[in-house]
Amino acid sequence: MKLRPYIAIATIIASLLYLIFFYLAFNLDLNELLLVIGQLDLRYLMLSMLLRLSSLFLHTITWYLLLRIACREVPLGKVITIVLIAVAIEFLIPIGGAAEAIKVLLITQLTSTPSSIALAALLMHRQLIILTTLITTLIAIYWTDIPWSASITIILPILGLFALNTVVLLTPSHPKFETLVDRLVRRFNTSLAGFSNQYKDSLRSIVDLSKPELYMALMAVVLEKISNSLYGVCLGASLSIHIDILRSLLAFDSIYAVIWLLPLITPGNLGIFETIQILLLKILGITSKSATLLALTNRVVMVVAEYPLLPPLSAYLGIHLKQLASNVSEFLRNNKSKYRNS
Questions:
Q1: Is 175 in contact with 195 (CB distance < 8 Å)?
Q2: Three-state SS at 111
Q3: CB of 290 within 8 A of CB of 281?
């Protein structure tokens, strides 16, 4: 059965529902919206797109540096390609952690990187991100005159995510984790015997404070956050909306900690991300109209800057997206059946 017509129809329906939702929820004036679009400052808009791609590149470099600590032969070109593919696929697969799973899957299949190193570097990357987010968010809140109730609303998810990431980071080193996962992967004629010890060794090597790559990775995370903040500032400037760099940090970077903890997800967090961002921007003193325009334009820039990269990058690695989607669907069906029968 050919899926393309159904995908096209589903995309059109989803886009219409998306526009209708924001039109009704935030009282969008379509005439005013068209006027704003006609007055867009394309220079700032293009700069926003470059900063968005810069953030993705810095995000990739962080993981690459952590991988290199334990696996010197990992190729930078493939790491960049794999991360960009994983980020774009998040829009197609509405499953929490799909991008991370795809990163580990592809890096182990397409390079000589052991799965223990790939997973340890990935989880350490997430912990570095959330730790840096906590510090930069506290700094931004201290210098921004927003209510303490709003500050707590932003800080609590970050603290919760830090605790959750700590548990997830340490879990693979436990023998019981190895036993559980080994049972799951044996159906694919694979075994993870000895994985927990390999993971411990990989994690120890990555957190070695004598390694310069660890500090370079931390610097890349900081630069990524600066890039995200400047992205928000330039996006606002393209719409003639003033947003300072600290408020931009909260609305275009710290917001991800809130999104990552949500149990409800949609492809690419479509609709959910925008709603939370609008509410956060309003708390930060941005008018409802400006906040809605910023959130919607942000989505457009993300789609235009990121998702067109998926087909050529997939072709570069020799990955057929249809087959990848089929494999993911089959994997989910198999596990769903297994859990139902157990």
A1: no
A2: coil
A3: yes
Q: What is the largest CA-CA distance in the chain?
A: 63
**Exposed/middle/buried for residue 73 (C-beta within 10 Å: 0-12, 13-18, 19+):** exposed
Rounded distance between C-alpha atoms, residue 222 and residue 217, angstroms: 9
CA dist 182 and 160 (Å) reads 29
Q: Inform me whether the pLDDT recorded for 48 exceeds 60.
A: yes
The string of pLDDT tens digits covering residues 76-134 is: 888 888 888 887 777 666 565 677 888 888 888 888 888 889 989 999 999 999 999 99
Q: How far apart are CA 249 and CA 312, in angstroms?
A: 31
Residue 10 domain flag? no
Residues 16 and 55: their CA atoms lie apart, in Å, by 29
Does residue 322 lie in a domain region?
no
Number of domains in the chain: 1
Label residue 71 left, alpha or beta by phi (over 0 means left) and psi (-120 to 50 means alpha): beta
Model confidence, pTM = 0.80
Residue 311's φ and ψ, nearest 5 degrees, are -60, -50
Measured distance between the N- and C-terminal CA atoms of the chain, rounded to whole angstroms: 32
Measure CA 43 to chain center: 26
CA distance linking residue 4 with residue 294, whole number of Å? 31
CA distance linking residue 262 with residue 96, whole number of Å: 9
| Contacting residues for 129 by C-beta, under 8 A, at least 6 apart | 62, 221
Integer angstrom CA distances of residue 221 from 141, 166, 306? 19, 18, 19
Q: What residues make up the domain containing 132?
A: 37-314
For residue 247, what are the CA distances in angstroms to 125, 130, 236, 240, 283? 25, 18, 11, 16, 10
Contact 76, 45 (CB under 8 A): no
Residue 218 counted as domain residue: yes
Give the tens place of pLDDT for each residue, 2-43. Answer: 444 444 455 555 555 555 555 555 566 656 666 666 678 889
- The answer as to whether 18 is a domain residue is no
What is the torsion angle, in degrees rounded to the nearest 10, for the CA atoms of residue 276, residue 282, residue 288 and residue 290?
-90
